[in-house]
Inverse folding.
């Protein structure tokens, strides 16, 4: 709307929106702040907001005692590995669906999306058995495979939509210019699709990092990622709020930052194009 | 080199026969224009020649060699797309050099050729820019440059001027014609604009629903259209087609007279009332509701000042009446 | 664009993805169906023989079944209502001119990216805990007795947590939809004399209805199977055992695999019903 709006109206909107935003964000903010408090301060009444003795002891305790780095590394490997593996499998599939569509393309795509709707709990026991049989229980490999499978539909879907946005004529021009299929994908398609591929990787790392069903049920001590690590705080001894806050902050910080950059991808990836 | 022959070329998409069967010969060095209304199959035919679509039947030969099953890369043809299809992530230089890179040409030689093409097309100052930083006309030239460096057997143009504004279109039209004169390579040009067809072509192929209606030079098509479709398609404003009693007087089912072949006379001829009059200065276009022959379009001289509501008499110039039979075909 | 050469290549390139997903879908699924028809008790030695439809009947006649259905519906429906209504309002607000809209968006989006285990634990301990939680502090500040959220208001607690996590999703989707509404439509309506409320009701809301439906369906699918939030807070106690959690317990904790698998089959059927509706909308969009 090109009409100017009164400053008062704008101020009102701003105040209201910021107010609501801060209320929604408050639990996260509080957690971050609490991670820097002593345990006593953490449960103090009246609650201390900004004025307390800031300390880093929680972070060091969490790191030392529970070998936080191992869990972090597991999360990185599992989230990164499953996403990368998924992308490698998905790029050719999305290419063929976007550029050489057949009358089955739409149905196959929808079928792939529907596999994501499978309730995990329905196949929990068989997966458990399969994992035991294949020696994959409590291994990072096993989890990489499972998370890759549950995110593959979204990866294929997102790449498909990004590829579709590449004008087909440009690929035809490459063909007329003498490019083989390999050259076409390597020199023309991939460079043009890099932003799309990056966005897909970003969103799926986030989804894999936060996955809280398979990572809790198929891992124990060795391959547990951060989701399981945090879960171990559910039966603590003694005062632990500050430590929980520190552990939580460390667990969610990377994803919060990545998430801020991936809003558009979120809409694209999780609404399956039904909303533009 | 550059002779293209089509024998019985067919194309169907599923159950629909988009092109039922076409025989056509394009001689070396000709500027051939495929023209016709939307959906007539002209772009499809071009893409079949390019190899971007498979034929459903028939053969395509390039310089005597059967190319029907060859992929586009092996046909030695170059195409300029409607949207130019430039590689957005590559500079102008890299765009033009791309086909040479694909052909495995050594980089020094390729750069020389690219620079030579750029010079011909006035692109030397823009070599390092990316397509996004160029104007429509410049992008058009980069697309042509990319086609030229391949030294193809023939150039294929798919409605290259539709995305340009009117003034630019006139300029580029002339540039392409001049290019043809200097390179002397075969060019196949697709357009729905019959003005482009008439001004640029050595030979025009008029297509309708996948069939060739007529092949001939621009003047042949203008003076001797073989059926009412071609007669109505070539020439702007369209030829007036009159049926009924008036046509029977000339021994035909339909007669046609072009708006520019009607004279405004004082009396006699066809009498009517002016509905619309458009004064361009150089010409005056009149839409006349006549008593006997329906609505007639007339192109008169700029000095004619008739207005809406005026009575007017129209006389067709002798020898300019086209006669068509009941099947739409022209009668000798 | 499609020629013989590219078509064969295309089929090959699709194969890995299709085969993997086919395997992923069929193998565990078939096993679950197999188990559901058998008496499978790992603690008593495993497969005890064919059970016919016993497991299916026992699952729905078990005393825990209907409460679980009720719990599921309560949580899902309330969360849907809250997230969508608040989501629409918030999206409308965020579409208005203001300063720092980008930052506000970041603030509002954040909860969606917090992993569910963290979410559950934080809320349970730092906010809802009746002794040391923030809510308790606030209650004491106002002189009232703090609520034992997890114990006395378990549903409210869980709904609160789930809504907090999913409202950003709804807001983001709806905001995207609102911003895709052609402003010229609204301006034409304004020139026709329509007041803001009418413009909202007749133009904005219908345009949003597609987005709202999508949000509804997607949230339903994911909310039907929420797990970590429950495990970390009530662990299914105090009546908050949802269908998913019930199945989970049957399978992993009480080790009656046959029964749990039958429940799993029910869950899959239910999810498929919802998914069909969603896929129909997606399918319509794919045609455009």
């Amino acid at each position: 709307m090109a009409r100017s709006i009164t400053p008062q109206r704008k101020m009102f909107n701003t105040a209201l929106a910021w107010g609501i935003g801060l209320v929604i964000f408050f639990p996260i903010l509080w957690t971050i702040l609490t991670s820097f408090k002593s345990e006593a301060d953490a449960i103090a009444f009246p609650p201390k907001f900004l004025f307390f003795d800031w300390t880093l002891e929680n972070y060091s305790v969490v790191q030392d005692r529970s070998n936080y780095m191992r869990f972090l590394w597991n999360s990185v490997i599992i989230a990164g590995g499953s996403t990368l593996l998924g992308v490698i499998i998905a790029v050719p599939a999305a290419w063929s669906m976007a550029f050489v569509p057949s009358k089955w393309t739409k149905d196959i795509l929808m079928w792939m999306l529907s596999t994501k709707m499978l309730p995990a709990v329905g196949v929990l026991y068989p997966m458990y058995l399969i994992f035991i049989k294949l020696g994959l229980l409590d291994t990072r490999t096993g989890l990489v495979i499972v998370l890759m499978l549950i995110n593959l539909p979204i990866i294929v879907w997102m790449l498909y939509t990004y590829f579709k946005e590449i004008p087909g004529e440009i690929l035809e021009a490459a063909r007329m210019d003498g490019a083989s299929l390999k050259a076409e994908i390597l020199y023309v398609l991939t460079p043009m699709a890099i932003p799309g591929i990056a966005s897909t990787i970003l969103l799926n790392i986030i989804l894999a990092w936060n996955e809280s069903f398979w990572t809790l049920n198929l891992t124990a001590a060795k391959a547990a990622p951060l989701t399981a690590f945090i879960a171990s705080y559910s039966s603590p001894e003694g005062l632990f709020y500050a430590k929980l806050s520190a552990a939580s902050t460390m667990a969610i910080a990377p994803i919060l930052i990545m998430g801020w950059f991936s809003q558009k991808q979120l809409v694209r990836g999780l609404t399956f194009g039904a909303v533009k | 080199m550059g002779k293209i022959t089509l024998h019985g070329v067919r194309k169907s998409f599923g159950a629909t026969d988009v092109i039922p069967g076409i025989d056509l010969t394009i001689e070396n060095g000709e500027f051939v224009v495929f023209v016709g209304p939307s959906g007539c199959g002209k772009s499809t035919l071009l893409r079949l020649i390019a190899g971007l679509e498979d034929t459903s039947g028939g053969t395509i030969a390039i310089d005597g060699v059967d190319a029907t099953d060859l992929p586009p890369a092996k046909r030695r043809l170059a195409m300029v797309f409607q949207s130019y299809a430039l590689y957005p992530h590559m500079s102008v230089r890299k765009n033009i050099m791309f086909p040479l890179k694909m052909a495995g040409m050594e980089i020094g030689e390729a750069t020389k050729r690219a620079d030579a093409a750029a010079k011909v097309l006035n692109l030397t100052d823009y070599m390092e820019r990316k397509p996004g930083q160029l104007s429509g006309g410049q992008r058009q030239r980069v697309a042509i440059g990319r086609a030229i460096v391949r030294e193809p057997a023939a150039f294929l143009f798919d409605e290259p001027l539709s995305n340009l504004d009117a003034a630019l279109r006139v300029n580029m039209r002339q540039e392409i014609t001049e290019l043809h004169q200097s390179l002397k390579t075969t060019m196949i040009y697709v357009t729905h604009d019959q003005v482009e067809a008439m001004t640029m072509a050595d030979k025009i192929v008029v297509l309708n629903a996948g069939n060739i209606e007529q092949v001939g030079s621009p003047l042949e098509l203008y003076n001797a259209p073989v059926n009412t479709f071609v007669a109505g398609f070539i020439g702007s404003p369209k030829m007036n087609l009159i049926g009924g009693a008036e046509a029977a007087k000339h021994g035909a089912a339909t007669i046609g007279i072009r708006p520019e072949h009607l004279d405004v006379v004082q009396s006699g001829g066809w009498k009517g009332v002016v509905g619309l009059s458009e004064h361009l200065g150089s010409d005056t276009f009149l839409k006349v509701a006549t008593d006997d022959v329906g609505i007639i379009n007339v192109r008169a001289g700029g000095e004619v000042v008739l207005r809406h509501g005026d009575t007017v008499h129209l006389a067709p110039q002798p020898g300019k009446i086209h006669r068509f039979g009941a099947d739409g075909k022209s009668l000798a | 664009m499609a020629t013989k050469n590219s078509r064969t290549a295309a089929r090959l390139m699709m194969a890995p993805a299709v085969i993997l997903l086919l395997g992923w879908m069929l193998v565990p699924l078939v096993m679950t169906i197999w188990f559901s028809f058998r008496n499978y008790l790992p603690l008593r030695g495993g497969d005890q023989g064919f059970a016919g439809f016993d497991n299916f009947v026992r699952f729905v006649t078990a005393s825990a079944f209907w409460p679980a259905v009720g719990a599921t519906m309560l949580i899902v429906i309330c969360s849907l209502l809250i997230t969508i209504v608040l989501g629409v309002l918030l999206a409308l607000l965020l579409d208005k001119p203001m300063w720092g809209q980008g930052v506000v968006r970041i603030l509002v989006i954040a909860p969606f990216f917090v992993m569910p285990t963290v979410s559950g634990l934080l809320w349970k301990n730092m906010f809802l805990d009746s002794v040391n939680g923030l809510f308790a502090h606030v209650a004491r500040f106002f002189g009232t007795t703090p609520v034992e959220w997890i114990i006395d208001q378990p549903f409210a607690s869980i709904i609160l947590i789930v809504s907090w996590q999913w409202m950003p999703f709804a807001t983001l989707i709806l905001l995207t939809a609102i911003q895709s509404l052609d402003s010229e439509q609204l301006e034409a309506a304004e020139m026709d004399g329509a007041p803001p409320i009418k413009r909202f009701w007749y133009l904005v809301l219908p345009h949003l209805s597609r987005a709202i439906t999508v949000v509804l369906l997607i949230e339903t699918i994911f909310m039907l199977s929420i797990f970590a939030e429950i495990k970390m807070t009530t662990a299914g106690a105090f009546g908050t055992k949802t269908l998913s959690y019930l199945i989970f317990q049957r399978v992993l904790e009480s080790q009656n695999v046959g029964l749990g698998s039958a429940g799993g089959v029910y869950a899959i059927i239910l999810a498929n019903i919802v998914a069909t509706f969603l896929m129909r909308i997606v399918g319509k969009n794919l045609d455009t």
